[in-house]
Amino acid sequence: MSQYIGNRYDFVLFFDVENGNPNGDPDAGNMPRIDPETGIGVVSDVCLKRKIRNYVELVKSDGDANSSGSHRFNIYIQEKAVLNAKHEQAYIANDLEPKSKTLPKEIEDQIRVTKFMCDNFYDVRTFGAVMTTEINCGQVRGPVQMCFAQSVDPIIPQEMSITRMAVTNERDIDKERTMGRKQYVPYGLYRTEGFISANLAEKTGFDDDDLDLLLEALMNMFENDRSAARGLMTSRKLVLFKHESVLGNAPARALFDAVKASKVVEGPARHYEDYDITIDKAAVPESVEVKTFDWIQPGA
Predict the structure, then answer these.
(1) Residue 2 in 3-state DSSP?
(2) Which of 140, 173, 236, 239 is the most exposed place for a label (fewest CB within 10 A)?
(3) 208, 1 in Cβ contact below 8 A?
């Protein structure tokens, strides 16, 4: 484990989608999410965090999340996870007996079970977690927070009919085929902003290695997440602002406003090259370092 981060960070991430559905809304027939008043496309922060979790689990998970022992890069929120079983390991590791929905009586023991969850689960010490279930491990505020991603320009969600040359049941054999629908966006460049707190990093143990892994995940989270529904999704550019101090040297909004994406073609955009992303470095204080990434080699 390296030293927890000692600087505040803010970041802007651009990613795009071609002929895919970046984040369908199950309450709207799985159509791509949009702001109905502006037509701007939306991808939830929860969706992006899920892809970060999946990437970390793919490249770093070092053991069974339900087993005892130290597994620093396990993932807490997993598909079909039993959260109480994970909480129980914190009590076993500290020789404590869990009581229904309550933390241990002693403050030191409360700290120990919560610390176990931070030490053993990457997403707990990164994003935080509410762990007040039947087996209570407390609550953690994570140092990394992300906003909804929004498309740079309005999108027009599309829907097409598709056919399947088979039927599910023998009674439908005379139908020969079945019909379905597919929802997609022809093209959209999306932008999201994020924040990394050094103060909260100290409390959860989020360190420099965790930060490097987060940046790697942001730039590679779509590379092993391919599906017919999502089309071609790619992280395009990451702009990282590193403050000299723990509390920061400029408002996040001022830094975000210095990053612009402008369309450089007439008519609808259909490729990443149809946009120009610029950073007004004159608007960034000297006490804030700016780094840009077009890709980060996995495992570098």
Answers:
(1) coil
(2) 173
(3) no
**Residue 113, helix vs strand vs coil:** helix
Owner of token pair 């970046």 = 22
pLDDT tens column, 142-183: 999 999 999 999 999 999 988 888 777 878 777 767 778 899
Angle of the 208-220 helix axis to the 45-60 helix axis, nearest 10:
110
Let me know if 238 is exposed, middle or buried by CB neighbors in 10 A (0-12, 13-18, 19+): buried
The stretches of the chain forming alpha helices (DSSP H) are 45-60, 83-93, 107-120, 122-127, 198-204, 208-220, 252-257
Judge whether residue 67 has pLDDT over 70.
Answer: no
Crossing angle of helices 107-120 and 83-93, rounded to 10°: 120
Would you state the pLDDT for residue 181? 87
Cα separation, 37 vs 24, in Å, equals: 18
Cα angle value 204/206/211 (rounded, 5°): 160
Cβ atoms of 194 and 144 closer than 8 Å: yes
Give yes or no for residue 84 having a pLDDT over 50.
Answer: yes
- Whether the pLDDT of residue 7 is over 90: the answer is yes
Report residue 127 as tokens.
């994003």
Decide if 103 contacts 115 (C-beta within 8 A): no
pTM: 0.93
CA-to-CA distance for 60 and 299, rounded, in angstroms?
Answer: 9
State the CB neighbour count (10 A cutoff) for residue 271. 11
